[in-house]
Amino acid sequence: MSQQKQIQLAKRPKGLPTKDVFHFLTVDIPVPQDGEVLIQTKYVSVDPYMRGRMQDTKNPIHLRSS
To answer: Coil, helix or strand for 39?
Structure first.
């Protein structure tokens, strides 16, 4: 069976994220069943917007006014 690497958020960071806020896993890729498809991701965008999504707030987008 093929495997994939996953990076999962383990806990919400306080301040800058460090390795301890993530789980680094290698898991089996399930075989697609009837009516399912398996896709391969080639590119993943990780940008500053994602930092706001890691916070535990109702509205994670914080805009700074100057």
So the answer is: coil
58 part of a folded domain? no
**14 pLDDT higher than 90:** no
**Separation between Cα atoms, residue 48 and residue 53, nearest integer Å:** 9
Identify whether 19 is part of a domain. Answer: yes
Q: Identify the pLDDT of residue 63.
A: 58
Please spell the DSSP secondary structure of 54-66, one letter per residue: TS-SSS---PPP-
Question: Model pTM?
Answer: 0.64
Q: How many angstroms separate the Cα of 6 from the Cα of each of 3, 54, 61?
A: 10, 17, 25
Number of domains, the chain: 1
